[in-house]
């Protein structure tokens, strides 16, 4: 039995090995041919570049960089190319030192100023929302909140930030892309740091994400789910906010009727604890205008992310805007899988946000020199 | 014209004056006769007593005092005599020094111990209400609250007070009777002071009502009406409680379903402010038992006052119980009108409490030497 089985097995495996070897050879030849054709078609010496250059070593205005930028701009819509193709073009662009394009930036800022005007309307203020105003909700458009004196008193007198007040701003997204980036120092050196959804910034993460926070958004769903709407104990939530030193907080209180009370409770809580922290509420009309602005630019979603909202606001409030942790793909530009957030891998509700579209949009803006998307490690 | 009118007026007024004088004379005679008859009937020299004696000067066991006590006990029900008659008998009794009747007191305490057992059941505790208990509300008897672990954790391990733990207790009601009583020192000298419904005890009132507070009840309706159910700012209410130094608070959280959340919020609030103040909830079964106990004693009401609840609890927790500010009549015993509360004149919902019945009951208990009702000024 044993001999028969062995006798039967040997010749077969010998034939298989021979067949595999031939297949391997054919594959290698084909790969070489494709690579050669690619290089001929694009006319660029990839091997040379990857040996000679490092990230940011090429001048912004060099011919090579202009071409590399054009490669990104040629992708008009996200679906035009495979993600891997887009990633490659993006990776290639990293050899070019990013530089702000003042003309593009100023044009963009002017468009924003016309549509949205963050320095006047980002938050509801005593100035832009007098007592008695019938405030229309962002999504429950049939719902109207008459601004009582009590609510009015919770608003700041005026917008706390003015046009291009801050030189360099960092907007920190929560994407897994920022993990191991060591961008903490870079971020903390910004004049103003925006963060989304009260993310963790403790010692475990600060080397990558920094700690400085000047404005952080709070999604009321977090308060509802993790802090029982602040109807019970409030100190646990207060202590979460204590992590963000002197940062102000901003809530979409007027997104829908459900958000209002729970958002106001953050203000009640901070008042109760004698906190001097600023508490602001996004002006629903500002958010609607921003949504409309991006729809025109081709970024459509049921709901734009709070990250995009902050980036849009930052574009008006800062001279130069740097994005970290914004990357909505399951892989980093090198094709390595990354977690959804830098602190967990909880996926969002499908179909709610349009993150890849938003990121694609940021890639274009980066390419046009309007903002700087940091998707790799900071050196 | 002038002369005619004068001529007409003069004789008429002369006749009237003469008639009034005769009437006056008849009245005075009648009054004298009635007073004389009264004195003969009762066999007591009122005039002499009111000249010679002062409050508390007669010995408890003197024949005169026994008789004066009997006069009160003879009034079996409040409607048997006019209030003025009851007041007079009460006023007369004040010449007798009050003394505790140990036999009566111990019998009473024993009855309470059997029916109600405050040292074990006054508040819900971890011991008497384990997690998982299906707690029946006091009035919404169809409503049942399953005690979750979260609620259970808010209960004290065991009752904080034991049987006859305190020598002398003062239970301070909020009746206008206490105004100008100067009983503050008296009250503050007690070993344990109970107060009802977080009344004001600031400098304006403390000479009359004292300041020491060991346990104060909070009616959730106050929180609902004056502190927006603690759903908004909580510090204003916290600061009200700060007036009561180290006093514990007790709430009828399980009176009806409406009371529960708002009562719990007092605990959340105090936890949030790191307060060490005790927060207790009346055990609904204790309150039901006390209500039943007093119904048997003839004190019926839709809802017994929190004052009566405290007095009942005090009877078990203290050796000697002194009542101040308990007087539910529109006049003091001397017939002078008084305000409803010592701090305002807001009348309660009619037909809800049965205060006069409760007070009448206390007058009997005072007379029997079970507790001491202070209705006059403290000397």
What keyword list fits this structure?
disulfide bond (chains A, B), homodimer, 379 residues, alpha/beta, Alpha-2,8-sialyltransferase 8E (chains A, B), two-stranded antiparallel ribbon, sialyltransferase cstii, chain A, 15 helices
Identify the biggest protein-protein contact and residues per side.
A-B, 13 and 13 residues
The total of beta strands of chain A comes to: 9
Summed over residues and divided by their number, the pLDDT of chain A gives a mean of 88
Q: Could you tell me the radius of gyration of chain A in angstroms?
A: 26 Å
- H and E string of chain A: HHHHHHEEHEHEHEHHEHEHHEHE
Would you give the CATH topology of the largest domain in chain A?
sialyltransferase cstii, chain A
Q: What's the N-to-C terminus distance of chain A?
A: 65 Å
Give the strand content of chain A: 5-15%
Shape of chain A: globular
- Output the CATH homologous superfamily of the largest domain in chain A: Glycosyl transferase family 29
Major sheet size, sense and barrel closure of chain A? 7 strands, parallel
**What is the topology, as strand order, of the major beta sheet of chain A?**
7-6-5-4-3-8-9
Question: Uncertain regions of chain A: pLDDT < 50 for 5+ in a row?
Answer: 1-15, 43-52
Count of discrete alpha- or pi-helical segments spanning 4 or more residues of chain A: 15
Oligomer status: homodimer
Architecture per CATH nomenclature, i.e. the level-2 architecture of the largest domain in chain A: Alpha-Beta Complex
Number of separate domains of chain A? 3
Helix content of chain A: 40-55%
GO cellular component, one term (chains A, B): Golgi membrane
Main location (chains A, B): Golgi
Keywords (chains A, B): Disulfide bond, Glycoprotein, Glycosyltransferase, Golgi apparatus, Lipid metabolism, Membrane, Signal-anchor, Transferase, Transmembrane, Transmembrane helix
Function (chains A, B): Involved in the synthesis of gangliosides GD1c, GT1a, GQ1b, GP1c and GT3 from GD1a, GT1b, GM1b and GD3 respectively.
């Amino acid at each position: 039995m044993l001999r028969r089985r062995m006798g039967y097995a040997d010749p077969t495996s010998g034939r298989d090995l021979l067949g595999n070897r031939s297949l391997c050879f054919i594959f290698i030849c084909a790969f070489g041919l494709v690579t050669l054709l690619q290089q001929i078609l694009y006319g660029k010496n990839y091997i040379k570049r990857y040996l000679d250059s490092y990230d940011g070593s090429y001048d912004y205005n060099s011919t090579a960089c202009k071409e590399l930028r054009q490669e990104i701009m040629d992708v008009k819509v996200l679906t035009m190319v495979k993600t891997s193709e887009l990633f490659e073009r993006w990776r290639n662009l990293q050899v070019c030192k990013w530089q702000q394009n003042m003309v593009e930036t100023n044009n963009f800022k002017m468009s924003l100023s016309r549509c949205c005007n963050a320095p006047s309307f980002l938050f509801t203020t005593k100035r832009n929302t007098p007592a008695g105003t019938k405030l229309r909700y962002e999504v429950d458009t049939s719902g109207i909140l008459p601004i009582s004196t009590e609510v009015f008193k919770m608003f700041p007198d005026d917008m706390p930030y003015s046009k291009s007040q801050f030189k360099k701003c960092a907007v920190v997204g929560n994407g897994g892309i920022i993990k191991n980036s060591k961008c903490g120092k870079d971020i903390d050196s910004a004049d103003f740091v925006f963060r989304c959804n009260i993310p963790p910034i403790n010692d475990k993460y600060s080397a990558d994400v920094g700690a400085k926070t000047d404005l952080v958004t709070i999604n009321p769903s977090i308060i509802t789910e993790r802090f029982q709407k602040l109807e019970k104990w409030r100190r646990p939530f207060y202590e979460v906010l204590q992590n963000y030193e002197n940062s102000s907080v901003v809530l979409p209180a007027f997104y829908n009727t459900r958000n209002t009370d729970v958002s106001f409770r953050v203000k009640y809580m901070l008042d109760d604890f004698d906190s001097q922290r600023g508490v602001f509420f996004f002006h629903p009309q500002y958010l609607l205008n921003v949504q409309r602005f991006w729809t025109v630019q081709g970024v459509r979603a049921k709901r734009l992310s709070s990250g995009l909202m902050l980036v849009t606001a930052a574009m008006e409030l800062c001279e130069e805007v740097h994005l970290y942790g914004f990357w909505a793909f399951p892989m980093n530009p090198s094709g390595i899988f990354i977690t959804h957030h830098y602190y967990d891998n909880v996926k969002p509700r499908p179909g709610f946000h349009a993150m890849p579209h938003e990121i694609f949009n940021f890639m274009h803006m980066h390419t046009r020199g309007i903002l700087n998307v940091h998707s790799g490690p900071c050196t």
